[in-house]
Amino acid sequence: MTVTLRFAPSPTGRIHIGNARTALFNWLFARKAGGRFILRFDDTDSARSTREFADEIERDLEWLGIEPDEIIRQSDRTDAHDRAAAFLREKGLLYPCYETPEELERRRKIRLSRRLPPVYGREALKLSEADRKRLEEEGRSPHWRFLLPNFKDDPHQPERTDVTWDDVVRGPQTVDLASMSDPVLIREDGTYLYTLPSVVDDIDTKVTHIIRGDDHVTNTGAQIALFEALGAQVPAFGHHNLLTATSGEGLSKRKGALSIASLREDGLEPMAVASLAVLIGASGSVEACSSMKALEERFEPSASSRSAAKFDPEELRMLSRQLVQQKPFDAVEQRLAELGITGAKAKPFWQAICGNIEKIEDAAEWWVIVEQGPSEDTPLDKADQDFVRQAFDLLPEEPWTENVWKEWTSRVKTETGRKGKQLFKPLRIALTGREWGPELSDLLPLLGREGTLARRP
C-alpha cells in the first residue's frame, strides 16, 4: 500500500507556523517514503469556513514548497459521512442525546463533587422511545454520541479499556477509553463535528499515517475505536510537540499570530520558515536548510522533544538572513529583476551587497544608492567636508581595477595623514550616505570614476 499522509486545516483563518509544522511533518514523511500527500480542507463548519481562507492556505503551502498530490474538501463528501453515520446508528453505536449544555455542566460538577471522573454518564441510553418523542415535542433536537467500546455487557458499567499504538513520534502510547466521554459526532443542527468526517475521509482516501500535534493524543484513542467500528484498517499515528510564542502562549489562527502570510509579507525566506518549523524542539541543532531536499534529510520525527517548543521570531530572522547572504546570484536573479536590478552590474552588485542585507528586497535600497547617489540617512559632518573634497581630488585615473579602493585610500592616507576610522567613515558616508554597508572596495568599481566624482561634496 502506498504511504499516504494528509494535512487537514479548517479554512477558518490564516495558518500560522504551528500549523505549518504539522503540514511539513506530513509532507516530509510522505516524501521520504516515496508516498502521497493530500491537502484536505475540513470545511464542514459552513458558518466560519471560506473559500478565501482555503485559497490563502494553498498559497501559503505553495510558498513553503509543499505540493499536494491531491486536494479535497470535506464539504463535497457529505454523502459519505451520512452513510457512515447511518451505519453506526444501525449498529447501535451512535445514539441520540438531549441534554442542554447547562445540564451537562451540572452533571459534570456533581460527578466531580463525588470524586468521580467528569465523563458523560450515558444517561441518554436509558431513554425510552416515548421519552425521546416527548423531548422532541418539547422542541429539543438531539446531538449524537459515539458509544465507546469500554464495557463488556452493560454500557453503564465501563471498565478500563486500553487502546495502544506505536506512535511514530512519541513511541508506545496508551489511552484508557473508560477515562473518556462518548464523543459527540453530530450537533443538534445535524452538522458534523470534526471526528466522523475526518475518519471517514481518511478511510476513503487510504491514509496510512496521521501526524499532528500532541494535543490530539487522547482523541486518538476514540478515533482508533471509530476506525475499527467502521471496519477499517487503523492508520499509524504520530503526535509532535506544539509550538508556543516566546511568552509560552499557544498560537492561534484567530489571532493571526505568526501567520505564514505575515512572514511571507515581511520578506522572510520560505526555507528559513520551513527549517525552523521542522527542526525546533528536536534533539539536533536548528539550521537553515537551503532546500526542501536538505530539510528532508534532516527530518526525523522521533527526534522531537515531548515538551512544547518556544518559537522566537528573532531566531527566524537570523536563519532567513543566513540564507539570503549565502545565495548565489543564479538563485536570486529573477527576484532581483523584479526589483529592477538588471544588466551587467546585477551580478557583481549582488556579490558586493548580499553579505549586508537581511532580505532580498533590501537590495533595492542599495541599488538606488549605486545607481542614483547616496541616501540621506547620514549627512556628512561639516568638519569632514574639506577632507573628503581633498580625498576626491586624489581619485586614481581610469581604468579602475579591483585594487582601486586600496590605491585611493593609500594616496589619501599619505596626503592627509588620516587613517583608520577617521579616514574610512567620512568616505563611506560621502559615497553611500550610510555609516555601514558593503565593502567599499566592492562598491567602487560599480560606481566608476565618473559616478564616484559625482558624489563629491
TrEMBL record:
Segments forming domain Glutamyl/glutaminyl-tRNA synthetase class Ib catalytic: 3-317
Annotated localization: Cytoplasm
Single GO BP term: glutamyl-tRNA aminoacylation
GO MF annotations, alphabetized: ATP binding; glutamate-tRNA ligase activity; tRNA binding
Matching InterPro entries: aa-tRNA-synth_I_cd-bd, aa-tRNA-synth_I_codon-bd_sub2, aa-tRNA-synth_I_CS, aa_tRNA-synth_I_cd-bd_sf, Glu-tRNA-ligase_bac/mito, Glu/Gln-tRNA-synth, Glu/Gln-tRNA-synth_Ib_cat-dom, GluQ/Sye
EC supergroup of this enzyme: ligase
GO cellular component labels: cytoplasm
EC number: 6.1.1.17
Stored SUPFAM superfamilies: An anticodon-binding domain of class I aminoacyl-tRNA synthetases, Nucleotidylyl transferase
All copies of domain Aminoacyl-tRNA synthetase class I anticodon-binding, residue ranges: 385-455
Domain of life: Bacteria
Reported function: Catalyzes the attachment of glutamate to tRNA(Glu) in a two-step reaction: glutamate is first activated by ATP to form Glu-AMP and then transferred to the acceptor end of tRNA(Glu).
Subunit structure: Monomer.
PANTHER family: GLUTAMATE--TRNA LIGASE (PTHR43311), GLUTAMATE--TRNA LIGASE, MITOCHONDRIAL-RELATED (PTHR43311:SF2)
Protein name (record): Glutamate--tRNA ligase
Species annotation: Nitratireductor basaltis
Taxonomic placement: Bacteria, Pseudomonadati, Pseudomonadota, Alphaproteobacteria, Hyphomicrobiales
